[in-house]
Amino acid sequence: MGKKVLIIAEAGVNHNGNIETAKELIDAAAEADADLVKFQTFSADRIVSPTAQKANYQQVNIGEDDTSQYNMLKRLELSEAMHHELISYCRQKGIGFFSTAFDPQGLDFLHNLGFNQFKVPSGEITNYPYLKKLGRFKKPVILSTGMATLGEIEAALNILTLEGLDRRQITVLHCNTEYPTPMEEVNLKAMLAIQRAFQVEVGYSDHTLGIEVPIAAVALGASVIEKHFTLDRNLPGPDHKASLEPDELKAMVAAIRNIEKAIGGHGRKEPSKSEKKNKEVIRKSIHIKNPIESGQVINEEDLIALRPGDGISPMQWNEIVGRKAAHNLNKSQKLQWLDLL
Questions:
Q1: Which class is 6-263 in CATH?
Q2: How far apart are CA 143 and CA 157, in angstroms?
Q3: Fold for domain 276-339?
Q4: Residues spanned by CATH 3.20.20.70 within the chain?
């Protein structure tokens, strides 16, 4: 078996600023058997200017007249007390708490909470002071690459490693930041291009509708899968409409675990333990098609391949044709070597 895929259930801001909704999201992620449930750690005052506008998908999904990104994010902040409460609740539910920070101060906050790995969101891949601080923690990093080129990924990796992070501690996620991502723009092969270019672990952060693409990513070798989920896609908020509902999240996790098993074999082409018993039942052996008298030369038209396959293999057909019968042979009789002269 290969290494287990890390499945991150991305709650993000789908709690809508409500601690009880956040706990319900944790419940759903734990019920789905995800490895981590991830939130977002930010202060609107430190990550967006008062004049910044919402992304088009945010404006469409929220459906309100207010176009201010600042006002939207201000309503979605998690306080320090809420972080501690959610961490405690995750422990009760047996699922790991995870979060993404969006500025250096947020990184320090998560570091002081005892985080042993960090997630770089796509928007911070060009944030030099952020990456510099993160590299100095020398702890595993998951790097999302939505909107990025290979050159920008290389620059981010260089900053992290120059500050002391070992490249073997970095997993790079292919990602598209359109919510939802059109299937024709997923470009899943780019994940493999990242792997070839930088010799790093790779994964996939998904914003498509449905569960097919993350499953395909695992089949292609993703070691980390991140997927947004919500309690209800009809809730107001920027990300709900591009998120899975709890039953879908559960189905995705189960499918990924099955794919892990399917691709985790030794890679040799040979009969499996469970199918060996079927070999004689399904394969064929040489039988007599027409009655043959003792001493008669056996011709090709006297033979037929029939199940079961516990006699002479049809692959030895040419070794039988032209031989003489040692005694009378009946129609449909399974041929044995002792039947031949």
A1: alpha beta
A2: 9
A3: Type Iii Antifreeze Protein Isoform Hplc 12 (3.90.1210)
A4: 6-263
Residues of the chain with CATH 3.90.1210.10: 276-339
Q: What is the pTM of this model?
A: 0.90
Please give the Cα distance from 155 to 233 (Å, whole number).
36
- pLDDT, one tens digit for every residue, the chain (341 residues): 458 999 999 999 999 999 999 999 999 999 999 999 999 999 999 999 988 886 776 766 666 667 788 888 899 999 999 999 999 999 999 999 999 999 999 999 999 999 999 999 999 999 999 999 999 999 999 999 999 999 999 999 999 999 999 999 999 999 999 999 999 999 999 999 999 999 999 999 999 999 999 999 999 999 999 999 999 999 988 889 999 999 999 999 999 999 999 999 899 999 999 999 999 999 999 999 999 999 999 999 999 999 999 999 999 999 999 999 999 999 999 999 999 99
Structure tokens at 41: 């750690």
